[in-house]
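Data deposition worksheet. Section B asks for the primary sequence of the deposited chain exactly as it was used as input, without tags or linkers unless they were present during the calculation. Section C holds the resulting structure in token form. Section D is free text for depositor observations; keep each observation to a single sentence. Incomplete worksheets are returned to the depositor.
Section A, Depositor: J.P.
Section B:
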Amino acid sequence: MDRDYHVHSTYSDGRFLFQMVRAATEAGLAGVGIADHCTVSAREEIREQKHLLGFNLDETYERRRNAIDRLREESDIAIYDGVEMDYHPEEEAAIREFLAEANFQYAIGSVHYLDGVNVHVEPYFADQSECDRAAAVDRYFDHLVALIDSELFDVAAHVDLVERNPALRDIATEDHYRRVAEAFADSPTIPELNAGRALDEYGEFHPAPTFLDVLAEYDVPVTVGTDAHRPEEIGERVPHLERYLDARGIEPVELSL
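Section C:
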């Protein structure tokens, strides 16, 4: 692993750009991609959360690009200008228009919300019936397949994000995984091996081993991302990812940038 395509900065919910780049350099990487969260949703509940969280990259990406350009002048590694977009099937036209306008070097797509609620919110889903939780997981994978089929994105992030939520964990089936693998096999979009919770309470990479096995069966390649929000997370997660890649015999692909 010599490139990390999924790092956040203060332009969403991470730390200062120079701190993240310095940490990537110290971790021995040849390149780091700044992929801050972004949404162009017109849905009221998502717009409200966006304003509360301060995820305004749709308005500040040019300012961030200028900062990246300045850092490139003094950096020993490549710095990529990316984005992590929230995806919903109803918003494809708005996402397509924004990505064409913003012209990032690459785009990561993520399904973060179901019914206007972040997938991470355990109480919301824990209060639902078993049937409703299963239906929520079905919707998650429906949206993920639509994300892949849209071909809007170079990368699909943390493709089994529902596993981070204990209320939704272990509901996904092999049938879900095969639907996703078939979609990837027919799409230029690449899934990401994401280390976002591998060292925390969840304790697994995304995708989890069973899901990763299915992707390998369909000859679907993967790229890699630490999903780091703090500088120290890069240094912690890079060697962990490298050991996992070696153990699984995976050679991650580099994006064409």
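Section D:
The longest strand covers residues 78-86.
The chain has a mean pLDDT of 94.
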